[in-house]
Amino acid sequence: KREIEEETGYRAHKWQKLGEFPLAPGYSDEFIYAFLAEDLEKLESPPAQDIDEDIETVLMTPQELEKAIFDGEIVDAKSICSFFLAKPFLSGRKKEEGRGKKEEFIN
Fold first, then answer.
1. How far apart are CA 95 and CA 42, in angstroms?
2. Domain range list for the chain
3. Is a pLDDT exceeding 70 seen at residue 14?
4. What angle do CA 84, 92, 71 make, to 5 degrees?
5. CATH says 2-40+57-97 is which class?
6. Which of 6, 38, 50, 74 could lock onto 14 through a cystine, CB 3.0 to 4.6 A?
7. Total-model pTM
């Protein structure tokens, strides 16, 4: 929860677990845990980013994000996989129609 505040300047009041996937199968046993952050609030004074991070927050609609993926503007596999796990929730489908375990919102 702290990471989203530090890296985007927003606070999420609702969290939906989307799923998990391996970071580098055959090379590492690490997993990525993907969450959908909702009910966002822009922080008046966001925490300072780590000195080694240079992050720019860009607001996009789900349609713009999908286009950026297919146009090759976004190539990070973690981001792409997380987007496609979130897509059923972003398009208004019920939680029960999504992939993986059904988790309630986390506060």
1. 26
2. 2-40+57-97
3. yes
4. 35
5. alpha beta
6. 38
7. 0.75
